[in-house]
Write a structure and sequence with these properties.
Blueprint lengths: L19 E5 L6 H8 L4 E6 L7 E2 L18 E4 L6 H6 L1 H21 L3 E7 L6 E5 L10 H13 L5 E6 L2 E2 L4 H12 L2 E5 L3 E2 L2 E2 H13 L8 E4 L5 E2 H11 L5 E5 L3 H5 L5 E3 L2 H7 L6 H8 L10
Parallel strand pairs: 1-2, 1-4, 2-3, 4-5, 5-7, 6-15, 7-12, 8-11, 9-14
Antiparallel strand pairs: 10-13
Helix pairs in contact: 1-6, 3-4, 7-10
């Protein structure tokens, strides 16, 4: 296997389950490994914008085209798809709104009308700029178009027993944008530009996958309508880069810079999000970034970046 790639059986906190799961966005950064993991414990179907022999063709801005006959009583639908880049949501607002809000909301309502449960992947950015430590009880004050879109969908359905929202912090893996950028700079001998201040409760992708499947399976055990998915530490991007430098990117040289004002129009500088329910879902504490990096990169095969 390639270092850091998902391997069936690597995540062990799954159980056999008789109900079906549908993953919307089963080729995405979260959706693709989630689809593979769900196959170990559930009867699973997935969608993608172009479809395939294995996946259903479906686009969220055309919710009427979906075959809702696929939805059975008690089926859980995990909605991971959408436009997730904050700058793209601001730049092409109308298209992003059609996908992230109008289409997504109509799809969710149609699923729930047929008895399907919906697990919606939202964002910690709905909390807004927060220097204090917050949990799920905190009042939301979304910053940026992307956050407003996620919160708009949440508000339409929160309180419905068929709806739950996962609020994700920054999700780390070898494939996340920041790690790929830093690793690429180290490999090419280039200086990486690291924005500061920029703080998040960085969470490893495997913890997100494991927690989401556990929530789908154990739905009735968790009365919460919103669950924070964040790591145990609030890390600045500079600290994130230093951990990568210490472990797998020994040649990394980075320069700290402050982003321009437009960058923070679309995202908060600091979100100190706590995730007390997540540890119950996982049956353990979420992993630290340093722990996760050593799991993701295969040192025994020399896959680290010199």
């Amino acid at each position: 296997m390639e270092a850091g790639q998902y391997v069936e059986g690597e995540i062990h906190n799954t159980v056999s389950w008789e109900n079906d799961v549908l993953i919307v966005g089963a080729t995405g950064y979260i959706g693709a490994p989630l689809f593979r993991l769900a196959m170990l414990s559930c009867q699973v179907q997935g969608t993608s914008t172009i479809g395939s022999n294995q996946l259903i063709s479906f686009q969220l801005d055309a919710p009427d085209t979906f075959d809702y006959g696929l939805i059975k009583d008690l089926e859980v639908v995990l909605v991971t798809a959408g436009i997730s880049a904050p700058d793209a949501c601001a730049r092409d607002h109308d298209r992003a709104w059609a996908i992230n809000v109008t289409g997504t909301s109509k799809f969710i309502a149609s699923v729930m009308a047929r008895g399907g449960r919906v697990l919606f992947f939202s964002s910690d950015t709905v909390y807004g700029e927060r220097n204090d430590t917050i949990d799920e009880r905190a009042v939301c004050n979304p910053v940026g178009e992307y956050a407003e879109m996620k919160y708009d969908v949440e508000k339409r359905f929160l309180g419905n027993p068929l709806f739950k929202a996962i609020r994700l912090s920054y999700v780390f893996s070898q494939e996340d944008k920041f790690t790929k950028y830093v690793a690429g700079c180290a490999e090419r001998g280039e200086v990486a530009e690291i924005f500061h201040p920029f703080y998040r409760a960085v969470i490893c992708r495997d913890d997100v996958l494991e927690g989401a499947i556990a929530l789908a399976i154990r739905w009735n055990e968790f009365p919460q309508h919103v669950i924070n998915f964040g790591g145990p530490e609030i890390l600045a991007r500079t600290e994130f880069a230093k951990i990568l430098q210490d472990t797998v990117c020994s040649n990394l040289i980075f320069h700290v810079t402050e982003p321009d004002a437009d960058f923070f129009k679309n995202r908060p500088r600091v979100i100190r999000m706590a995730s007390p329910v997540l540890s119950i879902l996982l049956g353990r504490s979420a992993r630290t970034l340093r722990e996760t990096v050593t799991r993701e990169f295969d040192f025994s095969r020399g896959k680290h970046i010199a």
